[in-house]
Amino acid sequence: MVEESGIRVVRCGGNKISFRAPIISKDSRFLLCASGDLVKVFSTSTEECVHVLEGHTGQVTGVILNPTNHLQVYSCSADGTIRLWDFIDGILIKIFVCGWPIFSIYVSEKHVGIAFITIHMESKKHGENFQLVALHLPKVPEQEVEAREMSAVLCNISSNPGSTAMGRGGEYVASVMGRQLTVYFFKKLKTYRFSLKATDKKGAKNAFTCVACHPKDDCIATGHEDGKIRLWRNFNQKKEYTYSTQHWHHDAVGTLCFTTEGMHLLSGGVESVLVQWHCEEVNKKDFLPRLGGAISHICVSPDGQMYSTSHLDNKINIIHCSLKLSAVIQGLVKGNIWTDLMIDPRTRALVMNGRPGHLQFYSLQQDKQLYSLDIVQQEYINQEGLDQFEVMRAAFSVGGTWLATVEERGRCTSDLESSLKLWVYNEKAQSFELNTTITAAHQDRIMHMCFSPSTETTMLVTTAWDNQFKVWLLGLDSDTQKEHASWSCDYVGSYHGLQPTNCCFSSDGSLLAVSFKEVVTIWSSDTWELLTTLCQPPGPIRELCFGRLSCSKYLLGTTAKNLFCWNLLTCSLEWSTPMDVCLLRSDPLSENVVAFSLHSGNTDLFVFRPSEPRPLFTQKAVCGGKVQRCVFSPREEPLDSCDERFQWLNRSRLYFLTELMELLTFSTKAEDERILNSRKQLLVDDSVAVTPFYLLLGKHRQQQEEKQNSGVSQAADRVQPPQASVAIKELLHTPAHVLPAASFLCSMFVNSLLISNTGSREGKEPAEQVEESEKEEDDSEEEMETHDYEQEVRTQGSVEEAPPLLSKAEEKELRRVRKTDFSWVTNLASS
Amino acid sequence: MGEFNVHRVRFFDYMPSAIRALAFQPQRERIAVARTDGTVEIFNRADCFFQEKVIPGRQQAATEALAWVGDRLFSAGLNGEIIEYDLDNNKTKYTIDAYGGPIWSITSNKQGTHLAVGCEDGTVKLFEVHEDRIQFERNLAKQKGRIISLSWHPSGSKIVAGMMDVIHIFDTETGKLRALAFPSYDLLGTSRSQECVVWSVVYLSDGTIISGDSAGKVKMWDSRTGTLIKSHQVTKWDVLTLSVSQDETSLAVGTSEGHVVQFQFLSMVLGQEDKEWVRTRTFKNHTHDVRAVLEVNTAIVSGGMDTQFVVRPLLDKIDERGQASALRNIQFPHRRLVSCARKAGLLLFQYPGHLELWRLGESEGNGERKRENTTLSIKRKRWIAYSTVASFRLYRLHCENNNVSIIKVSKLPKVLSSANQICFSSDSSHLFVASTCSSVHVAILNQSGCKFVCTLKPKSGSGQAINLLAASEDGKWLASANSDHEVQIYNLNKMKPHCTVPVHSSGVSAMAIHPTTNNLFMVHADQQLTEYSVEKKQYTDWSRQVQRHGLHSLWLERDTPVTNVTFNPKNPAHIVLHDMYMFCIIDQTLPLPDQRSQFYNQLTLRSMPEKERKKHSHAFKMCKIFKELLFVELMEDQSLVVVERPLMDITAQLPAPVRQKKFAT
């Protein structure tokens, strides 16, 4: 993938972690899941990603614990390899090359050295038919091994891993497909097939959806499309097999799983309720509702302490076996995206549609969802065909203080319900709070909205299909006399009854450009006067964008065929190029503008400055299909790339979303190297017996030394916010399971919280001490004996060595000890 | 097929009564059904669950339980009496009072030597079964509270009794309480504070006791230690009845929700001996309490408050698809309850306690209220005859314009005391009364009254009761069919048996003698059709052709028997048959349907041009317009009388079922 140019398109996180069932390690400390071409190891207690197992070149399609060594894990991938990892240290142990794309993997204790994998039927490589084969994993010392010795077990099975399961102790394997259950006994080499009728009288949909085998008994549980669960027994009889039916789910059963001891059966589906069935008491069941999206996988830890549910909205819940939610691992939700990609100016998180009715704030650096903001504030009902409120548009004001959202319902039907909501950031609560709700802000759908970038006024402009654009202003409501300000409509503009599509403020906020079909109108934001119109037929304007910084006099517009650049000083067309631009974005930190253009199935990228029509950078075929959304994310620390062609990436990073909902970005060589280095730094060198603690503490000590060397700390007058402290950062950003004991860290932590002992505080402290000593004198009468005793002890202890200098913390501790009431000792002594 | 004027009669308020008990006789494959009105019905499992016999009873008997001892059937009821039935003649043989208050249960041991009866006063009474009677032997140790349920251990030495909150095991040898096994029936886990009734117990040969109780639980106990092995909460309501299969691998549980739950004795790990009772299937065929279930080798039979007799086949025990694999739901009796005067246009409805006489063509009806205990009644022209369990009555009917009056014929021959079947000759000159031991009494009717002529007796000397009589139009022949599947033809001119129709394996469900050809047309319970020429004493050619060709599978798969056969006076080749769901005209001139041809082809035929119709039409013309038919008859004036009893009306009269929460309601 690396190109000569030294720049490459990389996938940046946001991979589906709920694609395949995760596994939990034997001690319930780690959860491993396939995520794209990686296997991620999460800590079940802290939800942090501990390791990333890299190596596969295709989608990882299954992870499973090595039955002979519970510290190792097999992973299989569509790239045709099975890899064996040590997941505690994140080391690749072995690669077995099979050569066929693998769709799922099963192992069992009874079949040592054999992995059961699902591959295409050999006849047609890309057909819809799959088979389960037993793959012999050769035992050779080399790391990379060809594994070609395989024998077919079952033919015509489903590629879905949930529709095949190993039976009790690996005695048999059960697989479902359509309306047939197939059980294959390894010992007898016998296959039994059980079919269900297409439908019975009540219109039941009998097709199987998933299967699970009881770990102790010979019992197979199957889930069905109509929500029934059947428990099969006696399936080694052709006729006298029997099953019982349980029905709770109202829609198809998504997944089934027995607990380790076989006491319970867990099931889940679209309802997003985890149902725990008691195998002994079939009528008894427990529920854990409202878990999120539809449940796609359930997995149980080998010790039975933890369950995990994977959800379609890219989430893994870790649940204690008493049905208490203990941790949530949330990835990037990739549902329907209607809003633009945005960068929250505060957290630099990517903001877009998340769960239905929510906006998600997703940290691109940590590949982790920060939080999800409930916009609609209505319970989402997991059912097909319901028309529910969805967030359609969202916009941030410049500083990130204000967030405007538009939610809609009834898009397909004629009766549209929509409301515009304005959210204000609350510093105290560290979250957005609803400020104003405007129901039916426009008569029709709101197409576009933007905040004014000027710092003096907070102003929002919305354009809608009802041929109007409205300007909303924050102001005190004169009627209610309330303290907090709310938003109200300031101006309604229209132009010849045409439909407005886009709106855009100039970088200083003085001009507003609104496009009405072919016409671009420029308005003064102070007086709401129509200043000028620009028109460049044919074709309606698709996108509008003002230039930034030195190019702020330019306005860019696209139609289906052309890209225009107007000079607003002369009100004339500066230049135009014939080009089908589907997406246009300007970098807020530089003059650069990025344009994506769809050309013969691939999207090309152009980076240019409005002032010069020659592009700075072009890359053909960035990705297949149309780019849906893109956003510039400002970098935390600018790169200093010398290559002129990549200078546009110095200040900010470009993220874009493809048709396949992949989040991609550009990465330069320098960056790659830096990331590699940082990884190496974290890796523990085996030769030296160092632990992560050592690394962590060593680093900290180094920093301390540096600090001491650099002299007295400067921050005397200003109270340093706690975030600035290195120790706290360390403490908060390190996974808890690699941290040393809390008692060890305590002093460091407390120290960092203390405000350094300089300046005005010095005068204050003696006074406090005086007060304290006075207090002590009051009760010193009774404590006399104990004091003496204490001193005696101290003298005894310090006979040989000089009394060490007490650190501040120790002093404090001492003071505390002195204050404590030891009168009970006297009582003891007297009695 | 022709067109008919149809009298659609829906005012016959026939109401079947609820099923209270079931008992299975494995050797002869008979199932006895006790209903709440005291009737006992015998179904033949081998013969497509044909209702062979109906023994009328009294409602006061309040039958609670049935027990077979060999071929003998006993019942016990809340009136404290034990009844033995005379199954040959369809009546009670004798009644014995157990002197223990109301009887809740009766069971026989496997050896067939003793009957145990559980009484209200807390005694279990043992009766010895003798050749002709039963003899009280002794009381087992008396308990406090009523004995609700009883079950013998297959060895016959122990008996388990379910009571309120307690299960006791008695030793039948000593009569002593062997073990006070379960001093407090585990009430834990039930929120209900009232006492727990053990509605049903089963004692298995391996010493396991299974109990079903009013807390909705099925519990497995170890009888040696008296400990609970396993408890299954089957329902929120009551578990009313249990039945274990003969090989003790399957258990059927009836609940008051109307569900039948099956438990199976399965090994949890395949190929190992350790077995456990596992709940498997649930059958939801009833709407009300399931008061009785039976595990009959290949099927689960259940009955309850909703009056249905449901046969649910266990497909895993049946090898091939066929009649045995079909779900059967028997709602109506397999005999006629309606009698019709074809010329006068009068209908006579038989209710359990009275008769109703209606005249067709007018909207007003004539009620005929008599306290009566069933059995047959037939009427032609000017006479009505009926018989109860105890007596026989004959009435003369005067029908002038709108005035209908009946006069009782006072002097009747003494021999006509009680009848299984009654039949008039077509000219109303003779009365035929089927009596005990397959004999038929013949009497002459005239203005003055009724005069006994003679008794016709079959040559075979069968002791079974006659269940069908048919007289020929010309008054020359009389056919009688009994429950041994024998059909006897008598020559009325000579008053002698004429011949016997070869015995068919299945019972006759309906028969009639053709008015012109004098062929006896018979329909059997297994849906076979036969036609027997009375004069030639042999099957007709058409009948042989049917046997050779075979009937269409759709015809054979129908699950209700034909209950009436009539002929079209206008077209002698047409035979009109009906069962519960359809009526059908068989045209004997047309070819029989092929196995591949479309059986219900009326609609297709209608859409075809005239010429092609002939090619495709076959002998069976089915009509399914009318549902839940009790009776179909072709009148003299070519109008069709159809008596319907919609099942909806029956369900509407049932008490409200146990309320259940249904999803999305």
From TrEMBL, chain A:
A GO biological-process term: rRNA processing
Keywords on record: Nucleus, Repeat, Ribosome biogenesis, rRNA processing, Transcription, WD repeat
Protein localization: Nucleus, Nucleolus
Pfam families in UniProt: Beta-prop_WDR75_1st, Beta-prop_WDR75_2nd
Disordered as annotated region, ranges: 758-812
WD repeats: 53-86, 201-232, 439-472
SUPFAM superfamilies xref list: WD40 repeat-like
Any one of the GO CC terms: small-subunit processome
Positions of the WD repeat-containing protein 75 second beta-propeller domain: 341-661
Predominant location: nucleus
PANTHER family with a match to the protein in the record: WD REPEAT-CONTAINING PROTEIN 75
UniProt-recorded name of the protein: WD repeat-containing protein 75 second beta-propeller domain-containing protein
Organism of derivation: Pygocentrus nattereri (Red-bellied piranha)
Record gene name: WDR75
UniProtKB/TrEMBL annotation, chain B:
GO cellular component: 90S preribosome; small-subunit processome; t-UTP complex
InterPro entries reported for this sequence: UTP4 (IPR046351), WD40/YVTN_repeat-like_dom_sf (IPR015943), WD40_repeat_dom_sf (IPR036322), WD40_rpt (IPR001680)
A Pfam family matched in the record: WD40
Superkingdom field: Eukaryota
GO aspect biological process, one term: maturation of SSU-rRNA from tricistronic rRNA transcript (SSU-rRNA, 5.8S rRNA, LSU-rRNA)
Molecular functions (GO terms): RNA binding
Name of the protein in its database record: Anaphase-promoting complex subunit 4 WD40 domain-containing protein
